[in-house]
Design a protein that fits this description.
heterodimer, A: 928 residues, alpha+beta, eleven-stranded mixed β-sheet, ten-stranded antiparallel β-sheet, 20% helix, B: 413 residues, two-stranded antiparallel sheet, 8 helices
């Protein structure tokens, strides 16, 4: 989908022209720098040094579940309340709020899946300088230092993480405006308790800075009735040189230091033609950072939905490799350390320190807080064909027929905003889409599906049912004066439903019911775009921060808005089927927890090689913070790709989780068959490869849903002790077992892939050529090459009978690819269920473990209490790195059979012909 | 009779079913003769015959599995008895979607496909028959249009020729009339001159110089005085008023007296022309004295007559020439090799698409008019500053009407 300017009516064209000045890139001037964001500027101005905050140890209270302690700012005597919790699964939660705020400060709801269960804390020692608490059995302790206030989390002799060690804790207490409101100030003094008495005098000395009570950016003025309310805190990570996460940024996987520029910004924005390799905010925000070194992985989850900036600095950042080596040789010097500082505009400090120690444990710790990836319908892992716009039903029919004619599988065809009646969502254009059910039935007959867009801006039109209902129920977000907030978006003047209200979300969900959403059928799914929210005429193309969501300002909830839209829509799709069917909803804006509601894409990218490259780190960064179902628009949204770029993008997208081609309205058509038979064949082959791996994808998504482990992984996640993997972001793993190094260079003759693991072997999935791990491998490539390797030691189930759509392949037989490692063993899993309902929650599935050792391949049930039957069987077993057996015997409940096989000695590939057992059965195959 | 043939065919089909290799056409049967082993059609591999269509792909070319979905690039032959046979990719065998009308592709799937070949065949035959009929009808209509076109063409050609002939005639006539007008004009001039010269043989006495002189010379003293002028001469346009002294003097050439010889050269001319002055109570006033001369009158009338006639002929000639060039322009347009599109000339068709009304006048103009009333030309005519063209998709039907579709006009800005 588009960002605003491209889709705007002529009214804004002049503005566009002025804005773009004819150049092709984001206009940075439309978006704030830290310097232009008053709170960021104020907080960033705090320099490291002695913190004014002191812990009042005498106020400490320790119960079974938490420690509370007051902090005092010695400069202004304002007191804060620190809460410290030990959470189950090696997580420490630190909350800091004002002890007595003038009015409540926003605490982010609905992101945590439950109040996190705690574990007991125990006091180890205490003196006037601080207290030491035990964090459970692993010799982990937290040291609270009193003067200045500081927290250190220590394991054994190692400091894992320190808070306020640089003294950058900043907490702007709520205050009355002095220059204009002297009266209430007096009231406040009288009402203050004795503890605050002496503070007021101090407080008056605090200078009123520009931007505290009002801030203007471009033509927009942000009235700040609550005054300054920012919070910030620094974290030191000793021994850490690599930090990751805090999406969404179009940047490398390994985060950069920000000393010389702006901090990474987290503020959901509709950025027109975003620029690569910079820290500007994009459509979504997940305030989670992972820190990694060869010994340990930890994570910081800063639960705050307001505009947030993250500064990163490192004591080794400036050093050259040679300098680092010198340090090493000389046994020298300081340990490397990364320091980060989080700054948010409002709310409280609520931070979860996920202490790992392994990457997998950090994933599970984060999943225990915000939940795991929604388990998607199997079909949504297939290929998606999208374009802004498929013009009418005939267009949809002919594109659908084109896929059949060219024998390219696909599962979903998408309709962008033009399908609606005048950008009124939940409606259809009466001429172009006069009979949507007929169209959907046509797709259903081919076992295919459709996605139609539903954006959260609602056309203000008294003849539009949705608007009338939202308006009459008072569900719209209000402006600062209490009237309905109005902004400009696709339909023209639009209202924005207040999705932070549970009753609004429930009503929204009800609109997806088949008797409400006319023309919808069960194979119609939903796409939420523009949910940052995008407001064409708003500050930074989004909503005014002083707009009101009930008692809260938009400032407080901004980054959460998109998550709520996604949540309500997914809920609607669940409810329309009576809770039976899994939803599929794509969102552009997101926050921590959005993984629970569906898929995410990287927004309006461009048909450029760098955009293809950046799709890898962008999705890896999302994967690390729980959002596995990620993809980039294949082909690039803006501009028109060269044929080579398009083919390479298909080849890359085929191995990324969300696989959808999309294109801007102004670009020439680019359905896969429009570039000559050779390129059609290349694209067909890439898409077919995707479909053969669907069983593996599905199993990975089940795993992601079940455990929180990402589907697409940076190499360091699986090879955490190999520093060569720490910054790799031109290749990635799918699960543990597939290594993908897509070709992302124009005119490439070859790529160099790092194959990790000194003791590992990797098999080229196309040629079955075996390569040793722990090396950089140069792979010559042609246009048909997609360098992908299967790890020795793994078993991957595939379906090689690629059909029109994934649903057509439901009952098809499996081919097991058994790749042997140096120990001649291998393991793998197979997950099967109905592919589309929630019945897996009732244990209606098959989950098998395959293992190969001692020349026996066997399938055992991983979930004996689960029940499901499948028609699928095993048609072929391919063993890579095998030797030639004399006989092969299959043992099943039905008896013993000799199996035919074929051995290719040149590649050491053993193909076992048609073993034929049911995929859900217990069996073993022995090689003699 | 037809029924019997089909029944026989069905029986035969049932009989051979036991040996039938699924998914092949009869021309491929020779590759699948039942023997001990089967050679992949590409010759790459020999497999036991039982492995043909055993739902496992042995041959790289997929030839061992023509009837299953086992081979990735295989193809399945839909016999489609009663309809058209065709191949489908083998990935469409048993995928739960009915592809062959004889339902043969879904022999082992959860869908129940109906054999629709007979219906489809019938439909197709009906369609083909319909098409043939339409084609015949179309050809007949075309022939008719051609005939009409030819007739029209000939008619127009004849018309052209006639017009050209008429033009030639008119040209001759025109010459003649020009000549005659010239003659008449000359005659008139001569008459006038003669009258002036007092040629008695030709002139009436009343009109002679001396007679007029005598008429004015009331006291008969041989010269005309101011008073005599005032008594007898008046303004043509104001007969009642007596001339002033000065006017009379002017008429007398500035002197108080005028003799006959001076009169003949000055005042006589004025009076005979009768433009400004005339003799009081002279009855045929505006014509002056000239009108009173029957010869002059006749000559004048003849000249006027000839001028009118010439004008008429000129107009006729012009009209005919215009008609000729119009007809020539029309005849210059390409109406198809057999003039089958000639009938469209002069016709206009209207079509409403959403809010737009399109008007197409073949060989002339196309326009789009929005419901708001804005009319835009989409081509035709010439010399327009925006070069727009319209693509008209031509569908032949048995009756004549504007097509359903209007393609978006191509517009280069």
């Amino acid at each position: 989908m588009a960002t605003f300017t491209e889709r705007m009516g002529p009214v804004l064209l002049v503005w566009l022209a002025v804005c773009l000045g004819g150049t092709w890139a984001v206009d940075k001037g439309n978006f704030k720098t830290c310097e232009q964001s008053a709170f960021c500027k104020r907080q960033r101005a705090i320099k490291p040094g002695e913190s004014p905050y002191r812990a009042l140890l005498e106020t400490m209270e320790l119960t079974n579940t938490r420690l509370t302690l007051q902090l005092i700012n010695d400069n202004n005597k304002v007191r804060l309340l620190l809460e410290l919790y030990r959470l189950q699964g090696n997580i420490t939660r630190v909350k800091i709020n004002e002890l007595k705020p003038l009015k409540p400060r926003y605490e982010v709801p609905d992101v945590l899946i439950r109040e996190p269960p705690t574990e007991p804390l125990s006091l180890l020692s205490q003196d006037e300088n601080g207290v030491v608490l035990s964090l459970g059995p692993e010799s982990q302790r937290v040291i609270v230092s009193a003067r200045p206030f500081r927290l250190d989390i220590v394991e054994g002799r190692d400091v894992l993480m320190s808070l306020n060690s640089r003294g950058l804790l900043g907490f702007e207490h709520l205050r009355m405006r002095k220059d204009t409101q002297a009266e209430p100030e007096t009231d406040n003094k009288e009402g203050a308790d004795p503890a605050n008495q002496d503070e007021n005098t101090k407080e008056e000395e605090e200078k009123v800075e520009d931007g505290m009570w009002e801030e203007t950016f471009k033509s927009h003025t942000d009235s700040k009735p609550n005054g300054p309310s920012a919070v910030s805190l620094d974290f030191s990570l000793p021994g850490v040189e690599h930090v990751y996460g805090i999406p969404e940024h179009a940047d490398t996987l390994k985060l950069k230091t920000t000393d010389s520029g702006d901090p990474y910004r987290l503020y959901n924005l509709d950025v027109f033609q975003y620029e690569l390799y910079n820290p500007m905010a994009l459509y979504g925000a997940v305030p989670v950072m992972l820190a990694h070194n060869a010994q340990r992985t930890t994570g910081i989850f800063w639960l705050n939905a307001a505009e947030t900036w993250v500064d990163i600095s490192s004591n080794t950042a400036g050093k050259t490799v040679f300098g680092k080596m010198l340090d090493y040789v000389q046994g020298s010097s300081e340990t490397p350390q990364t320091d980060v500082r989080w700054i948010s505009e409002s709310g409280i400090i609520d931070v979860f320190l996920m202490l790992g120690p392994t990457p997998r444990e950090v994933f599970s710790q984060y999943a225990s807080l915000t939940g795991t990836q929604a388990f998607p319908p199997l079909a949504s892992l297939g290929y998606h064909q999208c374009r802004w716009n498929y013009n009418d039903q005939e267009d949809v029919r002919s594109v659908d027929a084109g896929f059949d004619e060219h024998d390219i599988p696909y599962d979903f065809i998408w309709l962008d905003i033009e399908h609606t009646d005048g950008k009124r969502y939940f409606t259809w254009d009466p001429h172009k889409f006069a009979s949507p059910k007929e169209m959907l039935q046509g797709l259903m007959d081919k076992k295919r599906k459709m996605v139609a867009i539903v954006d959260p801006h609602i056309k203000i039109d008294t003849n539009y049912k949705i608007h009338n209902e939202i308006s009459s129920r008072g569900f719209y977000v209000k402006n600062k004066d209490g009237g309905d907030y109005e902004g400009w978006c696709w339909p023209g003047s639009a209202g924005y439903p207040d999705f932070t209200r549970p009753d609004m979300r429930a009503w929204w969900a009800s609109q997806f019911a088949y008797d409400q959403y006319e023309g919808a059928m069960e194979n119609l799914y939903t796409w939420n775009d523009m949910n940052e929210p995008s407001v064409f005429n708003g500050p930074e193309v989004t909503m005014h921060k002083d707009a009101l969501h009930g008692a809260w300002e938009h400032r407080d909830v901004h980054n959460l808005y998109g998550l709520y839209v996604h949540m309500a829509t997914a809920q609607g799709l669940i409810e329309r089927s009576g809770g039976v069917e899994r939803p599929f909803v794509l969102t552009r804006a997101f926050f921590a927890g959005s993984q629970r509601y569906g898929a995410v894409w990287t927004g309006d990218n461009a048909a450029e090689w760098d955009h293809l490259k950046i799709s890898i780190p962008m999705c890896l960064s999302l994967s690390l913070v729980g959002i596995s179902f990620c993809g980039a628009d294949v082909g690039g949204f803006f501009k028109s790709p060269s044929t080579e770029l398009l083919v390479r993008w298909y080849q890359t997208g085929a191995y990324q989780p969300f696989f959808r081609a999309h294109a801007h309205l102004d670009t020439p058509r680019r359905e896969p068959w429009l570039f000559g038979p050779e390129n059609t064949a290349l694209i067909r082959e890439a898409v077919r490869q995707r479909y053969t791996f669907l069983p593996y994808w599905y199993q990975l998504f089940y795993l992601a849903y079940h455990t929180g482990e990402p589907v697409m992984r940076p190499l360091w996640v699986e090879y955490p002790q190999d520093p060569a993997t720490f910054a790799l972001d031109d290749e990635f793993l799918l699960g543990r077992d597939l290594l993908v190094h897509p070709v992302t260079e124009e005119g490439a003759r070859g790529v160099t892939a790092y194959l990790p693991g000194k003791d590992e072997v990797w098999f080229d999935i196309h040629t079955f050529q075996k390569h040793n791990g722990g090396q950089n491998l140069y792979i010559p490539v042609t246009m048909s090459s997609i360098p992908v390797f299967q790890r020795g030691g793994s078993i991957i189930p595939r379906k090689l009978r690629v059909r029109r759509s994934s649903t057509c392949m439901e009952d098809d037989p499996y081919t097991l690819y058994v790749a042997l490692n140096n120990q001649r063993t291998a393991e793998g899993e197979l997950y099967i269920d109905d592919g589309h309902t929630f019945n897996y929650e009732k244990k209606e599935f098959i989950h098998r473990r395959f293992s190969f050792s001692n020349n026996v391949l066997s399938s055992v049930n991983l979930e004996p209490e689960a029940q499901f039957t499948t028609k699928s069987w095993v048609e072929r077993i391919i063993i890579l790195g095998a030797s030639n057996p004399s006989t092969i015997t299959l043992r099943t409940a039905d008896g013993i059979n000799q199996l035919e096989f074929d051995f290719d000695a040149s590649m050491s590939v053993l193909t076992i012909r048609k073993p034929g057992m049911n995929a859900g059965a217990d069996w073993s195959v022995s090689l003699q | 009779m037809r029924f019997h043939v089909i029944a026989a065919a069905l029986l035969w089909a049932a009989f051979v079913e036991s040996r039938k290799i699924r998914g092949i056409s009869s021309s491929y049967k020779r590759f699948y003769r039942e023997r001990k082993s089967f050679l992949c059609i590409d010759g790459s591999k020999m497999i036991p015959f039982e492995q043909v269509n055993d739902d496992y792909c042995d041959c790289a070319d997929g030839s061992d599995e023509p009837g299953t979905s086992a081979c990735p690039r295989g193809r399945f032959y839909c016999t489609n008895l009663g309809f058209r046979p065709h191949y489908i990719p083998s990935s469409r065998v048993n995928d739960g979607i009915c592809d062959c009308c004889d339902a043969s592709d879904e022999y082992n799937s959860h869908v129940r496909c109906q054999n629709t070949c007979w219906n489809l065949g019938q439909k197709e035959r009906a369609y083909v028959e319909g098409q043939m009929k339409t084609l015949d009808e179309g050809l007949r209509l075309k022939q008719q249009l051609i005939e009409e076109g030819v007739l029209l063409w000939r008619e127009k050609q004849a018309q052209l020729r006639e017009l050209q002939r008429a033009a030639e005639d008119l040209q001759i006539k025109l010459e003649e009339h020009r000549r005659r007008k010239h003659e008449a004009d000359r005659l008139k001039e001569q008459t006038l001159k003669a009258l002036k010269a007092g040629d008695k043989g030709l002139r009436h006495q009343n009109s002679t110089v001396s007679h007029l002189f005598q008429l004015l010379d009331s006291n008969k003293d041989g010269s005309i005085s101011v008073d005599e002028i005032k008594a007898k001469v008046v303004l043509v346009h104001d007969e009642k008023r007596v001339l002033s002294e000065d006017e009379a003097l002017t008429l007398l050439g500035g002197g108080h007296q005028m003799d006959l010889s001076t009169f003949q050269n000055t005042l006589w001319d004025v009076l005979i022309q009768g433009h400004d002055y005339k003799i009081k109570d002279a009855h045929s006033a505006p014509g002056g004295l000239m009108s009173e001369d029957p010869h002059l009158k006749a000559a004048d009338r003849a000249a006027e007559w000839e001028a009118t006639d010439l004008k008429k002929v000129e107009e006729a000639y012009e009209t005919v020439n215009m008609e000729i060039s119009d007809l020539q322009r029309k005849l210059g347009i390409d109406y198809g090799t057999d003039w089958e599109y000639l009938f469209l000339n002069g016709q206009c068709y209207k079509l409403k698409v959403y809010e737009y009304m399109y008007t197409l006048c073949p060989f002339n103009m196309v326009s789009q008019k929005s419901s708001a009333g804005v009319e835009v030309s989409l081509g035709g005519g010439c010399g327009q500053d925006h070069q727009r063209t319209t693509t008209v998709r031509w569908c032949t039907r048995t009756e004549n009407r504007a097509g359903r579709e209007v393609l978006a006009p191509l517009q280069s800005l």
